[in-house]
Design a protein that fits this description.
Chain lengths: ~210, ~375
């Protein structure tokens, strides 16, 4: 049985559809109930929904054999897992945004509000820029508007929220998309099941592209 | 001795000590503390740069050991016999103190392993791999030992000719079996398409040894000749072992490129979510520490064995022996002695402890001392 951790939410629905198209369907997952774990013994799969940022934890600790997580989460937490496929879903970018017309003179410490402290720290360390990280968990866009920070480091999908709040992307850090990850021990002991799964998903992703 | 009472890691310590000493590895006992300065100077070789430090009574800054190999390498001197075909072989069983990757908190890790330092040859590498496989086998029959050689990755990266930062980034992608991001990094770095394709084709090369060697021959035969010859000879030697099928090649094993420079290996047990054994040839570390000799070794992380499924004992004791306030203590002692001499575990109590699970309850007659 392959244990699969799916990220809750819109991305998770798309991810499940991809697994389904690859031949790993589990009809009970579409039933409207409060079950947490869904199994299809015939296909030897077991799915469960978890908070997106928790997917790498389930996979790294072996509670799930494989899972799907955004590249942002993988870079932020650095789990010791295999990253086997770029599923091409949930495409967006990690970017630095600031109030329109903002200019970083480099003369003083840059105040950076973000949920992604490690990514921001690494990005500015490569530039040798002195920064002060302001860790926030939500509504990051508010921080520069109220003078809490100079800039934000956050995920930008369409840029609508930024525009509506008179913020603009000043630098793109990296592109983001959903990745298939695997537990290192599962990859060894369940290779007979996992290798075909990855090949079929790869085929489905290529067909979608 | 009743082996049932031993925890899995305690059994492993005995079995592995027996295994290593049978191959001439001398037990090595080191001090609990090292000078903090020693680790500060060699931080790049540590798994984590967080070290627990404290002041000694004379004001010197000391540290709880975060690593064993560094201390062993420092203590072994070239003049003690590490040239002209001689080797120093030591094994150990020590606690190290590191920040755990998952919890980001300090953890005490019980580590057992061995080091072979000196004028190494292929037999020494074979012996290290053999003992790694036998170590895993001593703990569980369901295990896998995977081997790689850093010379192959270095040859492919040399062929690409990218910057030092690109080499580090690419090694990370190889370790994560991540061909998609490696392809993007190659394009960004301007790596020639033919070299980039070879490097990306290298990602995920793993499996049965002969098949992998054939794949690598096509991919990078001449440029990685020395590494491939070493692996081929090693593989031929391993063919004769009963453990042969459980020893595979996996080139995503990159381990620490600051530390290792030849073969590297990692061991997995079914039921444990991460590698329990890690090791390899660390000539690079030796040279950086001013040693002439080469070295190979490995460590097993025994704390991870707690993850292996175990059968829960249905009872805490065989007998709960209940006696009264007026029972003669000598008769309690005799009853306990009678039961334990028949191989039973006994808890003598005046009341019934709420959480104690006893297979059998024996009540002593009040005042009489009879059972």
């Amino acid at each position: 049985m392959i244990k699969i951790a799916l990220p809750k939410g819109r991305l998770g629905e798309k991810v499940y559809a991809l697994f389904e198209a690859a031949g790993y369907e589990c009809p009970s997952i579409r039933e409207n109930n409060r079950k947490l774990i869904f199994e299809n013994p015939e296909k030897q799969v077991c799915y469960f929904w978890v908070k997106p940022s928790d997917v790498p934890v389930y996979v790294e600790r072996g509670a799930a054999d494989v899972g799907v997580a955004g590249k942002d989460i993988l870079l932020e937490h650095g789990p010791d897992v295999y990253e086997l496929l770029d599923l091409g879903l949930g495409r967006c970018r990690m970017a630095v945004a600031a109030p329109e017309g903002f200019r970083d003179s480099g003369e003083r410490t840059l105040k950076v509000a973000t949920k992604f402290a490690n990514i921001a720290r690494r990005y500015y360390a490569e530039q040798g820029r002195d920064i002060d990280i302001i860790p926030l968990n939500g509504s990051i866009e508010l921080a520069p508007l109220l003078g809490l920070s100079d800039v934000i480091v956050d995920i930008v999908e369409t840029g609508t929220t930024l525009r509506e709040n008179r913020l603009a992307v000043v630098e793109t850090i990296l592109p983001i998309s959903a990745r298939l990850i695997a537990n290192q021990a599962s990859w060894r002991f369940k290779a007979d099941a996992l290798v075909p799964l990855v090949r079929k998903l790869e085929g489905t992703v290529e067909a979608n592209d | 001795m009743n082996e049932r009472l031993l925890k899995r890691e305690e059994k492993a310590v005995f079995a592995l000590r027996e295994l290593y000493t049978a191959y001439g590895y001398r037990p090595f006992k080191m001090g609990k503390f090292e000078s903090y300065d020693f680790y500060a100077r060699n931080k790049e070789f540590l798994v984590s740069d967080r070290i627990i430090a404290f002041s000694d009574t004379d004001g010197r800054l000391l540290a709880l050991k975060p690593d064993v190999t560094l201390s062993i390498v420092r203590s072994l001197r070239d003049e003690d016999g590490t040239d002209c075909g001689c080797k120093q072989k030591v094994c150990y069983n020590e606690n190290v103190y590191r920040v755990s990757g998952g919890t980001r908190q300090y953890k005490e890790i019980l580590q057992t392993g061995l080091e072979c330092v000196g004028d190494l040859d292929l037999y020494d590498l074979f012996e290290a791999v053999l003992l790694a496989a036998k170590s895993l086998e001593a703990i569980s029959p369901s295990y896998v030992l995977e081997i790689s050689h850093l010379g192959v990755l270095h040859a492919l990266l040399d062929g690409c000719g990218g910057s030092e930062a690109f080499r580090r980034e690419a090694a990370g992608y190889v370790a994560g079996k991540n061909a998609h991001d490696l392809r993007r990094a190659c394009a960004r770095e301007g790596i020639p398409p033919e070299q980039a394709e070879k490097l990306c084709g290298f990602v995920g090369v793993s499996g049965e040894r002969k098949q992998v060697l054939a794949e690598l021959e096509t991919l990078c035969g001449d440029s990685a000749r020395e590494a491939l010859d070493c692996l081929r000879t090693l593989s031929n030697l391993l063919d004769a072992l009963p453990q042969s099928d459980r020893i595979r090649f996996d080139f995503s094993l990159v381990n620490d490129m600051n530390y290792y420079d030849g073969i590297v290996f990692k061991g997995f047990l079914d039921g444990v979510c991460e590698g329990v054994l890690s090791g390899g040839q660390y000539g690079r570390l030796m040279r950086r520490m001013g040693k002439r000799a080469d070295a190979v070794g490995f460590a097993l992380y025994l704390d991870l064995l707690e993850e292996l499924p175990r059968e829960e004992e249905p009872y805490d004791v065989d007998v709960l022996l209940l006696y009264g306030e007026r029972t003669d203590p000598a008769s309690v002692a005799k009853a306990v002695n009678d039961l334990t001499s028949h191989g039973k575990t006994v808890s003598a109590q005046r009341g019934i402890p709420p959480k104690l699970r006893a297979r059998e309850v024996i009540r002593m007659e009040e005042g009489q001392g009879t059972v």
